[in-house]
Specification:
- The complex is a heterodimer of chains A (274) and B (429).
- Chain A is α/β, with parallel strands linked by helices and 274 residues long.
- Chain A folds into two domains: 130 residues, no CATH class; 125 residues, no CATH class.
- Helices cover 42% and strands 12% of the residues of chain A.
- Chain A has a five-stranded mixed beta sheet with strand order 4-5-6-7-8, with helices on one face. A three-stranded parallel beta sheet of chain A has the order 2-1-3.
- The longest helix of chain A is centred in the middle third of the chain and has 23 residues.
- The termini of chain A are far apart.
- Chain B is built from 17 helices and twelve strands.
- Chain B has a six-stranded parallel beta sheet. Chain B has a two-stranded antiparallel sheet with strand order 1-2. In chain B, strands 3-4 form a two-stranded antiparallel ribbon.
- Chain B is an alpha/beta fold and 429 residues long.
- In chain B, 42% of the residues lie in helices and 10% in strands.
- The mean pLDDT of chain B is 90.
- Classes of the chains: A alpha/beta (274), B alpha/beta (429).
- The interface between A and B is large, with 58 and 61 residues.
Amino acid sequence: MTGSSYLLILMHKPMLVYTFDNTLDGLLSAVFDSFYYHEMPNDLLTAGDAIPLFCDRIHEIHTDENKSKRVWKGLENKLSYIGLSIITISFLSEERDKNYALFSYICKAFKNPNKISIEKNFSDPDVLLCTQTYRRVCYEAKRMKQFLRFQQAKDGTYLGVIHPDHNVLPLIIDHFKDRFNDQSFLIFDAKRKYGYYYDKEEASRITFSEGETLSFDNETGKMNSDILSDNDKLFQDLWKTYFKAICIKERLNPKKQAGDMPRRYWKYMTEKQN
Amino acid sequence: MLTESTIEKLRILAESAKYDVSCSSSGTVRSGKKGMVGNTVGGVGICHSFADDGRCISLLKVMLTNYCMYDCAYCINRRSNDIKRATLSVSELEEIVMEFYRRNYIEGLFLSSGVVRNPDYTMERLVRIAQDLRTIHRFNGYIHLKSIPGASRELIKRAGLYADRMSVNIEIPKEESLKLLAPEKDHKSVFEPMGFIREGVLENKEDKKHLKHVPRFVPAGQSTQMIVGATPETDKDILLLSSALYNQPTMRRVYYSGYISVNTYDSRLPVLKQPPLVRENRLYQADWLLRFYHFNVNEIVDEIHTNLDLDVDPKLAWALRHPEQFPVDINKDDYERILRVPGIGVKSALQIVNSRRFNRITSYHLKKMGVVMKKAKYFITCGELTNMFSGPTIGINEIHPERLRPLLLSDKQKKEINDRKQLSFDFDA
């Protein structure tokens, strides 16, 4: 058989695409449906994605909490704590190919006949991709813990604005709650337009409605000068001075600096603002 | 209350403190407490920024004062230097630490000081600040205290109750060199406080077994620092000392600081155009081999190889000296041997031993896992009949180490070696 006719036969297999609502419950419901109907979709897309050209059938997933709960319960028997975190955390990533990889990862976890959990098999492309996505998200969460900068308002509330590539705010909020438990603060994700406000008791998710005037500049993260506390400017200057003074001029290494502290984060960082 | 003059003082004292390498906030996990500010996260700590020289800024690294009664040749703050001097008041420093911390600029404080009057007087002031931060300001973040050489046992025991980490810098690995450059210091004044800290930690550990409430004592252990390139010590001298230090309990990190010619007028010191950055880097790599790769110091440096190879990293240099250890079979050999392969790090080695329980690992998998195949391919065999280039496997034993070595150098390195050769040739002529 020649190569091209072999390909034709392969392509003849009907192409099946699942679409879901881009929630974790939706993804788990998709796994449920896949096992229920004994079929394996060729791709898992979200509502906005373009449908592939040779698509034969589209199955729209209805997110159902009962289904997702059952799938999750099953997963808890199949994966370790880390294996489960790989699912929840890499789901926060906004990379396009992660949905289908996660879907396959979960399916493989269920089909795995081995006693050893599938999450340790890094020679499997889906496991490797999910693990690497998980690492990237964790890494960015860590970077937000590093690079977030607070400014203090006149009423004593602190404001920090971030602009992460992945949706990591839910991962870092506990760290800041634990660390600054006696100060009220707002951490705002300027890319996804939502934030968490902590009032010394609990953190609650907040969004600003259209047209509401923000108390800070969305582009630079700077708090408006009329509500900035009186001595905040002094501490910003002190910090900038310190940042310049601590550098050893004989050892300048901008490449390492940009590697450890990528430029895309600089715009919200006090020491790098003018 | 802070004023404009505080900014100038902070600038002077940060510039005086910046030659200390240590800045890490690692080694202890302590979650937040009601009524206190801060926590520590453990792991490798958190670096809040990176200065233009690429070094991390985790702690507020500052001196309480840069007046000093000593005249150590390698130090910028020696008393005979004509530099700006300043002293931060206790309240100024405490306010800066708290306000910086609340703005997420820093993980905590790294405090050292020039020696004024006598070691105990200076140490006492450092301890006072740590104590104030913990008890008055309810600060629960990271505190790294420098122990002043020659400070008394009582003060160090008190300091240990408030500090997370303490350090005494060795600076010069051999005592005779230290005596030459810093006549007022000796190794005893360095190793004695180190011993006090160790004693304190071990006693504390013992107490914890019997008593319910024991105060914390330097939970993140101690660190030290050595200057590289200011004195004639070889890498062997330095690494033997590091290895001995790591064998003691409580020693967590040894830092290496490439000597920067700060006092060019002093004829006891070499005049370097550039700090020996490559040598410093190789020493850190060797340090990593000691701590994470189960290497013995004698495998890295020995009688013949007293200095580290500047062109290739110490792990590769070891592999080139030991062709009989290769090839390593990725699918069969144990973790320890896989860890020895140049191009495979701790993370990849763990991934390999985990994954091979499921199926045979091929070079495709290795590449995907992040192994540097450019290096590793000469040292391994994996689950393939032939290698990626569809020929018989060509490894270190077929090519021979001396011919393999140039293959592993980058073009830039080759050019540098060539330049060096030409330079020495000109010099001879």
